[in-house]
Design brief:
The complex is a heterodimer. Chain A is an all-alpha fold. Chain A is built from 13 helices and no strands. By secondary structure, chain B is α/β, with parallel strands linked by helices. Helices cover 36% and strands 29% of the residues of chain B. In chain B, helix 3 packs parallel to helix 6 and helix 5 packs antiparallel against helix 6. Classes of the chains: A mainly alpha, B alpha/beta. The structure holds adenosine-5'-diphosphate and magnesium ion. Magnesium ion binds next to helix 1 of chain B.
Chain lengths: 314, 252
Amino acid sequence: MHARKLLVLGVLAGLAILAYMTIGARGNWGFILSFRGTKLAALLLVATALALSTLLFQTLTSNRILTPSIMGFDALYVLLQTGLVFLLGGLGYAAIPADAKFAFEVALLTGAALALFGSLLGSGLNDLFRMLLVGVIFGVFFRSLTALLQRLIDPNEFAVVQGAMFASFNKANTQLLLVSGALILLCSLLAWRKRHVLDVMALGREQAISLGLDHRRELFTGLVLVSVLVATSTALVGPVAFFGLLISALTYEIIRSQHHGDLLIGSVLISVIVLVGGQTLFERVLGMGGSLSLVVEFLGGLVFLMLILRKVRA
Amino acid sequence: MITIENVSFRHGKAPVLKDISLTIEKGGITALIGPNGAGKSTLFALMARLLPLQTGRITFDELDVRQSPSRELALKLAILRQITSIASRITVREMIGFGRFPHHRGRPGNHDREKVGEALEMFDLGDLSGRFIDELSGGQRQRVLVAMAYAQDTDYLLLDEPLNNLDMHYARDLMKQLRSLADTHGKTIVVVLHEINYAAAYADRIIALKDGTVAAQGKTADFMTEKTLSAIYNMEVRIRELDGKLIALHHA
Ligand SMILES: Nc1ncnc2c1ncn2[C@@H]1O[C@H](COP(=O)(O)OP(=O)(O)O)[C@@H](O)[C@H]1O
Ligand SMILES: [Mg+2]
């Protein structure tokens, strides 16, 4: 039953990719395919990274509402960018070689994410609303630090920061495809190998230990994967607050399985359908290339509100 | 054999367990009783490595709880917690199937499926096997969790208030099944009970915890005295013999 659903999703994802590559193409096919192919690769990587990181995070924390970005990760990314501009100046910031900046960002974000999530989970904080509260507090803290730095920055240089503050799916940083591709592929393979362990982790800490897992170690390695995935995707397209949540909610709704074998594949396919399909629709059909992130964030935000309200009532 | 040596535990500043030492022989049923807040669930959590030991030592046969790999311990002991949070969209069969995880690590074989089938039948869950956990009554859910611990097929079984939510019929069924697990399969069962008469009827030994210390322990027949029970619960408990069984009158 799940195999059939996954097949349908696979076909839909394939169609979305086909549409993205061909609709509205005129002129030299060789050029179009390589030009669009590069952008497509970036979209696929981001779709995979966001889907997997959200799913893993939710499994490790045994919740289906919180995501890394809701826990303050996005705010941290913007703070990092602002900090760099503040320290180096706008020109200096622009002069950092793309791959060096990428390596630095991924390393720093991974470290920060581990510190953030690790301290939250290590303290045995497993109550959803308390975690949410802590995440919100971290977010506010990072944002006020950012606001403070932005006040100190030259207004001209502020524009540079603003560019980094919003996600843009159609201006993905294509110079970094190879490195980020390798990282994301590696993380995906590791997650896939851990799929049975993830099934047990989803039962919660006590069950996982009783069933023979080294819970601390699994939690830590899982969080490393989450951190690298989020950091990589953020470095590619910028922060996306609610996209991951939209995808995970759709995945649970459509796949209706607790096997991570099904969930991992399903979430990536759904993510590709939404991202590549949506980008095709907005860029090629509606002619509004930049709007997809806004729409996706809006929908994801609605889903978030819905889930929280449902939880409050339950 | 389970040995507990000089185990003390504090939740924050409050001492919950005070220098507990116990040995529980292999085989048979040991009932753990005591007032609310005595520390029974905390002791279980320490035995099952769900809380870190602060002082002292706990071993199951040759396995030291603090040092042994989690998986080896999962093949040695299974635990039913007093309160379990359950992921909702899991079917009864899948949930019980997780009990087999320590054996197959994600790739269940025929033997694992047989064991799950056996657990379903034993705890009268066959008709519910396809239902989601969150669509069950409290008592049905309790039976699923016991069945899951059973499916784990370990030498030692720790059950924290397994009779919670069970009606008279299923409570008696469960106690009889525990008895047969101990008698015919050689399992060692430690069970927290609140109804002293279940302990009197089914346990080989009784251990009473009170205020974080061992207040009394002994073979069931020796343990069941008016003096002991009255002291443990701070109230008058009378004991009568009926059809050759000791009955504690404590409810009125
Ligand atoms: N997580 C906790 N934090 C602080 N105190 C706790 C916690 N869990 C239990 N306690 C306290 O420890 C004592 C023993 O609790 P517990 O082991 O659950 O008792 P029992 O199972 O015998 O009723 C109680 O006084 C209880 O309030
Ligand atoms: Mg208790």
